[in-house]
Amino acid sequence: MAHRLNDRVILVTGGASGIGAAFCRGFAQEGAHVVVADLNATAATELAREITQASGSAIAVSMDVTDREQVAAGIADSVKAFGKLDAYFNNAGMNSPMKLLDVSEDNFNLIMKVNVLGVLIGMQEAAKQFIVQGGGGKIINTASIAGRTGFPSFAPYSAAKSAVISLTQSGARAWAEHNITVNGFAPGVVDTPLWVKLDEELEEIGEADGKMDKLSSQIILGRPALPEDIVPTGVFLAAEDSDYITGQIIPIEGGMILV
Question: Catalytic one among 157, 175, 185, 195?
């Protein structure tokens, strides 16, 4: 049976939970060799085992996306296991809401380090591998609707995701000569453990406007996304279907932000 991602080797950072885990399962079902990269090595190993037991192909690598040596090692492990790398999903990210007047240097720097520096390092190391292989490859970045419009309860996160959009465009221009495409997608409200934790933190600082139910009321399709709603776009961006698309951000947010 033909699959859209047959024999493609795809690494997903933050791959052990939420959108990343949904991607890993979905890519494996489409015939890809999946690399589950996550700071939580135990969870990554469990997901890789689950995929393998379901007749898929997967390995787990422990990765802190802000540590270049770990990122390079994860890519090297992928190539050692499967012979190449075809697509790299910069999906790992984090948020820690604070009222704008209360945002501290530590809060700002942590969010920027994980969401922006982590993406930059991933893009660079993936591009190096693609170039060594002779060119060709796909880099996909997880942006956010927060990168298109600022939110008062998580301004650093909005700024970080705006930076991810700019990095996506920069990478597309820089590496087109190597036939490397760089794209991203911008989820809106997605019902994941990350957002449940976010809701709790927003409650603590008295910023109810940023909570899932409040933001979901602005979605014209009437509900927040599930991780599985994001997977088809991820498959499209990892497959040949998107070969003539680069430097673009695809919104997946149920009609929440219309521009």
Answer: 157
